[in-house]
Fold this protein.
Amino acid sequence: MRHKSARCLVTGGFGFIGSHVVERLLEDGHEVVVVDNLSTGRCENLAEVQNKSQLEVHEVDINDAKRLLECFAGVDWVFHLAALADIVPSILRPVDYHQSNVDGTVNVLEAARAAEVKRFLYAASSSCYGIPDVYPTPETAAIRPQYPYALTKYIAEEYVLHWGQVYDLPVVSLRLFNVFGPRSRTSGTYGAVFGVFLAQKLAGEPFTVVGDGTQTRDFTFVTDVVDAFVTAAQSNVRQEIINVGSGSSYSINRLVKMLEGQVTYIPKRPGEPDSTHADISKIGKLLNWAPRTTLETGVQCMLENIDCWREAPVWTPDRIQDATKEWFQHLAKPDPHSSQTK
């Protein structure tokens, strides 16, 4: 069904997921306003649509409240994806993460409220569940953030829901599970598994598999995530938290077998769950949404776009050990049964 054209604002529109959202909205005939400070987003992510007349770009930081407000004129739908990501940098720079992910979100909410937007979609993180008790994990699971990134994304979600409650802003929070696809970040920060593995494959280096590789992840392809955002925007659903996942969970050993290459194993890390697996029954009921892309199809697409990772850092076990030392230092908990524990 064709929906009426809307004026949409995408924060973080030059980022991995944001750029795919922008392309989909333009394809659907909407006007799109991109707000991005380009601290992690890349201009080339929107190279194919940069000349479209329906696209308007503002290089603005979401913590610049005055300039941000000016971008919201006439906006109907807001897709808030701007955030600082990754675990280790959040441990090293927790205040920066709070300013970007929490204070920045409040600024976006206030601009949206002033503009009287019709829909507000927030990109939340499934990392808020920490190490869950239940798999597949429902939206009602306990909240146990293990590091500042997860905490700031969750606190921002609470602000989003509170603005919905107090100011009647029509909000939906989408908790995303292990999103992958072309354009996923290739920054100098050690992070998402696909970026690490694809750069290693290009360099002829072995895949660095954490632990024994039997841990599983709910790998969700980016176009499915985009479809969830657009479906939520087109709906009348409001004041809800909704998981967005693939409906399955796949082992890292299975992934590296599909990518084809040698493997080297590195130490298991504290604060990481053995599994992520979304219960997606709620989004099916509320939005009649279901994922369409299998892991096999998604991995094939990644391999077809592998040149995107040619400039990405190549992580060796020694480099990973150095990059994650703060992770182990701050997140490792002493064994209460050890004789060394006082």
About this structure: The first strand starts at residue 7 and ends at 11.
